[in-house]
Amino acid sequence: xxxxxxxxxxxxxxxxxxxxxxxxxxxxxxxxxxxxxxxxxxxxxxxxxxxxxxxxxxxxxxxxxxxxxxxxxxxxxxxxxxxxxxxxxxxxxxxxxxxxxxxxxxxxxxxxxxxxxxxxxxxxxxxxxxxxxxxxxxxxxxxxxxxxxxxxxxxxxxxxxxxxxxxxxxxxxxxxxxxxxxxxxxxxxxxxxxxxxxxxxxxxxxxxxxxxxxxxxxxxxxxxxxxxxxxxxxxxxxxxxxxxxxxxxxxxxxxxxxxxxxxxxxxxxxxxxxxxxxxxxxxxxxxxxxxxxxxxxxxxxxxxxxxxxxxxxxxxxxxxxxxxxxxxxxxxxxxxxxxxxxxxxxxxxxxxxxxxxxxxxxxxxxxxxxxxxxxxxxxxxxxxxxxxxxxxxxxxxxxxxxxxxxxxxxxxxxxxxxxxxxxxxxxxxxxxxxxxxxxxxxxxxxxxxxxxxxxxxxxxxxxxxxxxxxxxxxxxxxxxxxxxxxxxxxxxxxxxxxxxxxxxxxxxxxxxxxxxxxxxxxxxxxxxxxxxxxxxxxxxxxxxxxxxxxxxxxxxxxxxxxxxxxxxxxxxxxxxxxxxxxxxxxx
Length: 587
What we know:
The N and C termini lie far apart (about 120 Å). The relative contact order is 0.07. This protein has 5 domains: about 10-100, Immunoglobulin-like (Sandwich), CATH 2.60.40; about 105-195, Immunoglobulin-like; about 230-375, no CATH class; about 390-500, Sandwich (Immunoglobulin-like); about 505-580, no CATH class. It is elongated. The chain has 10 helices and 32 strands. Strands 19-18-17-21-24-23 form a 6-stranded mixed beta sheet, with no helix packed on it. It has a 4-stranded mixed beta sheet with strand order 1-7-6-3, with no helix packed on it. The protein has a 4-stranded antiparallel beta sheet with strand order 12-9-14-15. By secondary structure, the chain is α+β, with helices and mostly antiparallel strands.
């Protein structure tokens, strides 16, 4: 008879052992054991000694019992050949935690030119061509309207994890054009940011997070993997990172498309060319992605098999594209998103048209020299902010008691100091001390030494007394005389002349004989379109025999500057610290 003391047993999963049935016979007859029909009888067996085992090792995570609750129910019958006894038994399979599948979440946000919705974020897999893709990925998720995602991946994965983001659209513009983004070294410790910047590191192991920030002028404290630049665009560091992300996206997209339209099937070759130029650049000289030198270097090495690019085409390609990139900015109204869409819809076709010689030279000049108007014409975006102000010039004004003003250190009473300006220029007079204009009100008149102010100009002529600035318009008189509103004779010989073009012979090239820095846009030559600070340039030619080339600037018609070969830089973002060129008669 069965005399087991318990009918319920617990065993760990992943083993066949279950329990042993205890039975005895008063006559000492040989006993036989069997499992009779029951819910889970087919899953277990019993031997001649009463040892019950699973036919296959049970899996706690995938129970195979009838109720799939890990409670296996059988009926055991023991017989001595004449009499028999039966008993119901339950074997409960318990979890072996050592084989548990645990998971972790990679949480973050996807940005391109803003937050990207409905994109696929995955643990990248490799396709037959050796390229990373989300197609067929085991682990993937979709981004929300704010670009956020949460990707769950098993903890026991030993392979290198790389995150990839494909497709999606920007909900601000509903623009579904997209470029695949990536992120290496993801972590669960912080929220992640997949971006164009992180994509550079995904595909190019020459860069580190630190070296990439140095090459692109991103604040060293900004964390590419973790900091969302769009959370605080009013912060200088975040704004710069957001700008770089947008400009980098534009370069990747526009030049990949240009290559594709020019006979290259692999768009990653354009990415490699861009990355090469950034890696090889001198970060101490320039870091802007809108830099014409960088853009020119990229285009020089871009594979365009269907074209033989002429020097003129190269000038127009680099000048047009860099001019556009230089005007891009990021703000709380997502203006960068519209810049990006304009680049896809209009800049890329224009670049292709330059290669095909189908773009009118007037349009090329407009995108280079009147970029914001070109953007407005193409995109209908209005009230754009010009982040490059080349038409404002500041002059310092001091005083020697009530005897005379000094302008940039020049005695404006005894010296016939002339400031030249064109319509559209703004002249700002900055006092060297707070009491200069308090004691000596700085005014502008149409008559010389007009202390009484009888002929003073005002806002209708472009003068702002509160800001001490003159914005030249068509209503501004062509000859103006600054003066003190209290003391006579402080600005007797100096004046302001409004001109349509500049006469180089009237500029002081004796005192300004050294290297200068010009803030403006190069209008001719291989670096046409380069905007910003150009240095070292000179107002007169070097000695005969010296190698040099001439420069002209859109903002300074009538003036030619000279640069010795191998010196200087075209269109730098920040000042070099050299003497600034100003349209004035005395330095």
